[in-house]
Design goal:
With 498 residues, the protein is α/β, with parallel strands linked by helices. The protein is built from 20 helices and 13 strands. The chain starts with 31 loop residues before the first helix and ends in a 7-residue tail after the last helix.
């Protein structure tokens, strides 16, 4: 977003050239860093479902322990004939050693350490619930552009299909006749109808390609789509003079329709051609198919209802994507790739990334339906995406995982935020969740085991067999030691290698 004097800018905005003065309006708790810190603190304060289970168990456990302490004291008093001091020692020892502090600490300490470890690796987990659900995930859906791929596509090929149309636009533009009518399909399109046009210099194939690229780039200037921006960047690298379109319309999942220098120019995928009812020859279909089979996305350029050419754009996959997908699959998770790209290009990228299944030609609003379909099949789904069009799917998923370089709405919609935009962090998030839940279960087991072992000792079972009687003071020490053990076990998560 280009800024003018008086506009608001956010932290991280880039000044390409020159100098400027900026007034700071948001500091302290309003800054991005402070919001990240608050996000982590909120996550550490929210209870996971497993924590609620521990609380529920403790709710029954406490009255039960009080009952056991009372019954044990009465039995020693009535049947054992012991003095009041002995009876009180038994009663207090049982209450003290069975204090469920370890139960209360088992879950929150592990969650606090787990979310802290995640934050240290650039994985921001917004809640204990999200952390817990991650360990049950058995299906991960990855958006293609910007998630599996770099999100920085580049123009690879320019194919002129109707050179006459492109050249005619170039000639009319050069003659400063904006919006002049192109020759009809049956007319002589090479400009040889008159002696004057015959004498005009004809553009070479390279010049026609350059003209086609310039026309497409001019129209794509108002588009925010990565493929459109790739075309614009390619033209700017060639230092082309680009004129802004007079009218601009974005067709979601298809492309753009513009009015440029009086001509109707549309740039987009095959869905856009169907929308405009533009015929495509078999040769053009074959050419586009060949491009798609090598992972390139063909973008059709239509001028005044005629297919003028194809601009191919390719987006390379990230260096870590293949390794990340393999590691995620190694956790027993099925990996899906979802994209609005055409089927052949998507299959090519999916094969390179080693994903299990590819869902292609999906409109933005349909991504959430893909998530819902998998959920109806009984799967616990994690959605990973970075764009505005991923937000509904991120919300629909059991766990929404937003890539940190994505849009604000995606980051707000996600339960987990990957600050480094690295797919390996998806694997790390799932691995961290599994380790944290395993740690919580260990804590709960030892807390219950300790109480199960300590209560009979405090009730005088050893004394009954000729052993020592546990004093309340030692019982208190043992109770404190159990809490220390639980906290110590949770802190072991800090040594987890992600």
């Amino acid at each position: 977003v280009e800024k003018q004097p008086g506009d608001s800018v956010i932290g991280g905005s880039m000044n390409y050239n020159g100098a400027m003065e900026v007034e700071v309006t948001h500091v302290g708790s309003d800054t991005t860093l402070s919001k990240i810190i608050k996000m982590i603190e909120d996550a550490q304060g929210k209870k996971a479902p497993i924590s609620k289970l521990a609380d529920k168990v403790a709710g029954y456990f406490v009255p039960a322990v009080m009952g056991i302490a009372l019954v044990a004291a009465l039995l020693w008093w009535i049947l054992g004939g012991k003095e009041l001091s002995f009876v009180l020692t038994i009663f207090v020892a049982v209450l003290v050693i069975a204090c469920p502090c370890a139960l209360g600490l088992a879950t929150p300490t592990a969650i606090m350490v787990g979310t802290g470890v995640g934050a240290g690796h650039g994985i921001l987990i917004k809640s204990g619930e999200a952390l817990e659900i991650c360990h049950k995930v058995d299906a991960v859906i990855l958006d293609k552009t910007g998630t599996i791929t770099e999100g920085k596509p580049k123009v690879t090929d320019v194919n002129v299909i109707s050179g006459a149309v492109v050249e005619q636009v170039w000639k009319l533009e050069s003659s400063s006749v904006p919006g002049a009518v192109l020759p009809a399909a049956g007319e002589n399109q090479e400009g040889s109808a008159s002696k004057d046009s015959a004498m005009e210099p004809q553009a070479s194939d390279d010049e026609k390609k350059e003209h086609l690229l310039g026309i497409a780039a001019s129209c794509e200037q108002m588009s925010e789509h990565p493929l459109g921006q790739a075309i614009v960047n390619a033209a700017r690298e060639k230092q082309m003079d680009l004129a802004m379109p007079e009218a601009f319309e974005s067709i979601t999942g298809a492309g753009i329709i513009t009015t440029w220098k009086g001509w109707k120019v549309a740039v987009g995928n095959r869905r856009l051609l169907d929308h405009l009812h533009v015929p495509v020859s078999q040769d053009t279909e074959k050419t586009a198919s060949e491009y798609a089979n090598t992972g390139k996305t063909p973008m059709y350029v239509v001028i005044d209802g005629r297919l003028a050419g194809i601009v191919c754009v390719a987006d390379t996959i990230k260096e870590t994507s293949v390794e990340a997908v393999e590691k995620i699959k190694g956790l027993g998770v099925t990996v899906y790739m979802v994209t609005g790209d055409n089927e052949k290009t998507a299959q090519y990228i999916g094969k390179l990334a080693h994903v299990d299944q590819v869902v292609a030609e999906v409109l933005p609003e349909d991504k959430a339906q893909v998530v819902n379909r998998l959920q109806k099949e009984g799967k616990t789904v994690m959605m990973v995406g970075d764009g505005i069009n991923d937000a509904p799917a991120l919300v629909q998923a059991d766990v929404g995982c937003a890539v940190g370089n994505g849009s604000d709405i995606a980051l707000e919609s996600g339960d987990v935020v990957l600050m480094k935009s690295d797919l390996m962090d998806v694997y790390r998030a799932v691995k961290l969740s599994k380790a944290t839940i395993r740690n919580i279960k260990q804590n709960l087991f030892w807390a219950f085991f300790y109480n199960s072992l300590g209560i009979p000792v405090a009730a005088g079972v050893l004394y009954l067999l000729g052993g020592p009687l546990l004093s309340p003071m030692l019982g208190g020490f043992a109770m404190s030691l159990s809490s220390v053990c639980v906290v110590g076990n949770a802190l072991r998560l800090r040594n987890l290698k992600l």
